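request received
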Amino acid sequence: EADIYQTPRYLVIGTGKKITLECSQTMGHDKMYWYQQDPGMELHLIHYSYGVNSTEKGDLSSESTVSRIRTEHFPLTLESARPSHTSQYLCASSGGIGGYTFGSGTRLTVV
Amino acid sequence: ILNVEQSPQSLHVQEGDSTNFTCSFPSSNFYALHWYRWETAKSPEALFVMTLNGDEKKKGRISATLNTKEGYSYLYIKGSQPEDSATYLCAVITQGGSEKLVFGKGTKLTVNP
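response:
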């Protein structure tokens, strides 16, 4: 039973479209993260938030943006999708020392 | 940039075999190490969080050890079962790293019946 929800699971979209990947958690965690993973590569942190109205860029540069208006919601937006944005995007949250809780991921394909 | 190395990249074993794999990381500024198990089409699931040198953790047939002085952790699976087939991810947090996990590429384990 997932406590962190990502939608959509799969998305195929044309170049130039604006997209928003949704991530919601029901655990009341303050810390939330977005990771990007290309095939055969590591998960790379692209955005993180330590609470409402707090967002920071991660170690991997990304053209995406995020917002944190509510504790439970951490959406990621691409204003103009490009084929180079094709990847898997994973959302996670943490509430302490017990490890991260991950969503199921969104596989994005930009054609 | 922190570099977390995992080996081997992939591993095929027979049901009942015991196996282990390695995670290596820079020993300086170490804060914590996480192990995750990621089955296909599912979410990564936290297995262990380890912080102290010499830590040993166990969960059923899976156990892990940590050596922060030399910068490595081992994950062991005793009597592998087909349901253990997954990618096992190691991730490290450094002091001053703002609790951000840096992941290795993972070890993909396939257990044949």
